[in-house]
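Both lines are quoted verbatim for reference:

——
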Amino acid sequence: MSTSVGLWIDHRQAMVVSLTDGGEATEVIMSNAEKQPRRSGDSPLKGSYEPQHVSADDRRQHTLTGQLNTYYDAVIARIRTADAILLFGPGEAKQELKERLEADHLGGRVVGIETVDKLTDHQIAAKVRDHFAKPHIAG
């Protein structure tokens, strides 16, 4: 049984649409990554000690990178068995995931990468169905 997967992804969530001979399934994977982690404490700090209570930008970036790596690992685990993978979404996440797939020797399964805006769940599923319903012509 072959499996084709369409994946709409950004840094906050991924929607996986799996198409098999048995039908269609969808799943949402949340990243839980914060681009702007909040400062700790109940009130704004004043005075010369504030830098001691705010993590450095590189530490925040390191935290974000770790959260995204965990997220991408979860997405890859979900789509690992797919025979064909279509990646699409609005930002950089689709290209970052493609690079991770290539590092895991799964890059050859990626059949397309497209930049699209935010879509509804129904639009995402329809796009995946339409893409894999078309005959693919090798160029």
